[in-house]
Amino acid sequence: MNNKTYLYLFLDISSIIIPFISGFHKKINLHKKFPFIFIANLIVMIPFIIWDYIFVGAKIWGFNDKYTVGINILNLPIEEYLFFICIPFACVFTHLALWKVLKISKLTSNIHLLPLLLILMASIFFIFQSKIYTKLVGFVTLISSLFTLFLYRTNIIKFAKEFAISYLILLFPFLIV
């Protein structure tokens, strides 16, 4: 086996190692929430695994065997399942670090980035009409962005503003990849 075989696994592990270790920070105390985060991740994982299974089965997209260890469950590499545990965990950590450690609330009192994100997602949706996967992801992101904007504007839930801002910040790495 060459080093490429472990690339996806390496990316999964690297995305979680710092949040896992730093989760014990006294201001974050993420370790006290490990069981709840794990259960939530498993529940949220289900529709995404179904989504992956459908798109891989339809040959709309797939996984390169050169970058996975070769263990598959329902035609999906084990690394994909780990992705849906590692990345949400890292996102929860990032959210808590932004608000409890970095205290970004002082920097975000007049944030108006969400309308820009909506324009970006709508643009992606219309520009990539011939690419079904990109169009669908753009559409889903647009809908979730609208929902986030609704939560942010109506202040229905206590943490809506924090969620909306964290969501925006965390979307940038996903848009890059």
TrEMBL record:
Cellular localisation: Membrane
Cellular compartments per GO CC: membrane
Membrane topology reported for the UniProt record: Multi-pass membrane protein
Location, primary (coarse class): membrane
UniProt cross-references to Pfam families, sorted A to Z: Lycopene_cyc (PF18916)
Keywords for this protein: Carotenoid biosynthesis, Isomerase, Membrane, Transmembrane, Transmembrane helix
UniProt GO MF annotations: intramolecular lyase activity; lycopene beta cyclase activity
Pathway it works in: Carotenoid biosynthesis
Superkingdom of origin organism: Bacteria
Biological-process GO terms, alphabetical: carotenoid biosynthetic process
Domain Lycopene cyclase: 6-95
InterPro entries in the cross-refs: Lycopene_cyclase_dom
Transmembrane segments: 6-24, 36-61, 81-99, 111-130, 136-152
UniProt-listed NCBIfam families: CarR_dom_SF
Name of this chain's protein: Lycopene cyclase domain-containing protein
